[in-house]
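debug: dumping io for the single-chain case to check the tokenizer round-trip. Nothing else runs in this session.
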Amino acid sequence: MTDYLSIILEGLALLVGLISFNKITIGRYKLLPPYLAIIISFEICNMMGLFAYQRTNLWVMNIAITFEFLFFGAFILSAYRNKKEQRIFGLIMLAVLLYTVIDVVWVKGVFKLGYHAIVVQYSLLIVIVCRLFYNMMQEFDRGTSLAHDPDFWVSTGLLFFFLAEFLFFASFKLAYTHPDTFSALFKVIKTIANFILYSCLIVSFLWARRAKKISY
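debug: decoded output
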């Protein structure tokens, strides 16, 4: 049920993104609809069992989560005005990517979930998006409303999503010791995180239709 709900929410966000596409004035927001289309296609194929190999789909989950890390990391950093911060975080992202490859290929194994590397990925994404929030607050014009800024909405949705995913993967060992608790935790976290993320994405698409190019 939660899988279908996630796809419905993603589909609504994609629909609004496509409708708004030609009117979006901030270039990076035009990357979101293709990304959502890829994610929806992946999740449908995953639900159909098309990625199952040697009785597991964890190998493709490693790839999908790393793709998500790189996409959203680059998306958030593209909003940074401070090029030095942008370069530093970019280099840290590359270091985390290298660590992920080592963890998945040589430490855990390709057919096991590299949850240690995934926790590191989401930790960095949380820091990056929090830094963007700080920059937004520092340069906030009191004559305008943050509620009209698409970056505020997408950053809010991503922060809740990253925190939820971090909590989920940080407690991954529960899958082995308390599988029922882990399953219930997964369903609750996934539903709430996806609802917040895609609701915020929908609002950000609407405001990106009229916003000027902004960086922080």
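debug: round-trip ok. The chain has a mean pLDDT of 89.
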